[in-house]
Amino acid sequence: MLIGGVIFALLLAMPFVMPLLGAGYLAGLIIKAMLMAIAALSLELLIGYGGLVSLGHAAFIGVGAYAGAIALESGIENILVLLAITLVVTGVVALITGVLALRTTGIYFLMITLAFGQMIYFTLTSLAAYGGDDGLTLWTLGTFFGSDIVQNDGGLYFVVLGVLFLTWWGVFRISRSRFGRVLRAARDNPARAEVMGYSVNRYRLVAYVVAALIAGVSGLLMMQHAEFVSPAIATWQHSGDLIVVLVLGGLATRNGAILGAFFVVIIEEVLGSFFTEWRLIYGPLLVLMVLFAKGGISDLLVPRQTQGKTP
Question: Which CATH number characterizes residue 134's domain?
Answer without folding.
Answer: 1.10.3470
